[in-house]
Amino acid sequence: MSDSNDRESKTAWKPAHRIARRQFLKATALAAGGLLAAPAVLRHIEVAQAADRTEISFASAKFFGKSTVAQVVEAFNQSQGKILVKYDELPPPSASTEVHQGLVQRLAKKDGTPDVFTQDVVWIAEFAGAGWALPLDEYVSADEAGQYFPGVLAACRWNGKLTALPWFVDSGMLYYRTDLLKEIGAGVPETWDQLVAAAQALMKAGKAKIGFSWQAKQAEVLICDLVEFVTSNGGAILGPDGKTVEITKPAAVEAVQFMYDTIAKHKISPPDVRSWDEEPSRAPFTGGDAAFLRNWSYVHPIAEDPKSSSIAGKVGVAPLPHFAKGKSAACLGGYQYGVNAATKNRDAAIEFLKWLSSPETQLRFAVELGLAPSRPGVFDSAELGKAQPFMQTLKPVFVGATARPVTPKYAQVTLALQSAVSKAVTHGNVAEALGEARRKLEQIVA
């Protein structure tokens, strides 16, 4: 929070503090006279303190590390005396469908709860399109907005309005074996052709059982990978208007063909990738069997932990490769904040929202929960460099983060794409599968 906000918080806190102090002294005196038992004194004080505050609710997926989201919320409650936040814990992001359903059920009631919530970046358009998310432009200045990664901020807009505020960012990245590349005298691949050549060379030399591990399971992660392959070839899934379907254009078809070819033609990826999501694809890499891996930032601490990895000290991270005429693209992940459009406590919700997204709180989430800041400036802090040195190196990766298709119909779009792309990478009928996807998408986004 800024100094001015700190002063405002302290000023607003004093009356509640004085009232609570008087109530405490009164209750203590009564207890000393035998009129109240000690537990009753404490309950009386807690009720009085809560009555002096504006109570709001905060629903979030469960994240944890050295601290939990609940502990961060409690830190806010302890920092001031105006607002009391009640935490509504949802399942972890790995149970994305359940988190989404939980939020939809709550927000659809339009009863004002939860006042503030966290949301996967791909739900922003859906919640805004349904009228559940409060537009935030009047509360966020242009200067404040400019302090976030442009790609993340763009993903927080719907129909030109800012309907979410950035929390943390994640994206796909390339993990590679530094020792193996050194042994064959190869550099870190910048193009997909270079990755294929290095992977084949390492497999032929018997230095790696798997050249390239990635995720082709019919699940959300398949669409994340799809975005990276297609965008790195200069293609797109939907046009900027969210309604023009571009999945059958040459750049997209060529990219999906390459996804299939990693398995069937180049043979650098095993057929098993068709059933792998994040963890099954991670295991061969940290187990020492794979030369390259596409995955998220969570893999790094696992890969560098000798207790869970056989390649600790031999791991490098780089932006994902691109096609000859394209540039690296990393699928944007992460959760962002929103305010319920029906909240009955707008001022309190906005104050809590801005505290959550402040540089200080983002730094705490980064240091204690390993959630990468959505503010480039926070990446440069000495404290982050000391606590999370690897995270600090990811800034160039996040700058190029690319959003999945932005549409309020995303839940339907992703299911149609998952089905079609899964068929394409399984049977190799790329043009036919993407043609089927185009027809379904045109009906969905019309």
TrEMBL record:
<protein>
    <submittedName>
        <fullName>Multiple sugar transport system substrate-binding protein</fullName>
    </submittedName>
</protein>
<dbReference type="InterPro" id="IPR050490">
    <property type="entry name" value="Bact_solute-bd_prot1"/>
</dbReference>
<dbReference type="Pfam" id="PF01547">
    <property type="entry name" value="SBP_bac_1"/>
</dbReference>
<keyword id="KW-0762">Sugar transport</keyword>
<dbReference type="InterPro" id="IPR019546">
    <property type="entry name" value="TAT_signal_bac_arc"/>
</dbReference>
<dbReference type="InterPro" id="IPR006059">
    <property type="entry name" value="SBP"/>
</dbReference>
<keyword id="KW-0732">Signal</keyword>
<comment type="similarity">
    <text>Belongs to the bacterial solute-binding protein 1 family.</text>
</comment>
<keyword id="KW-0813">Transport</keyword>
<dbReference type="InterPro" id="IPR006311">
    <property type="entry name" value="TAT_signal"/>
</dbReference>
<keyword id="KW-0574">Periplasm</keyword>
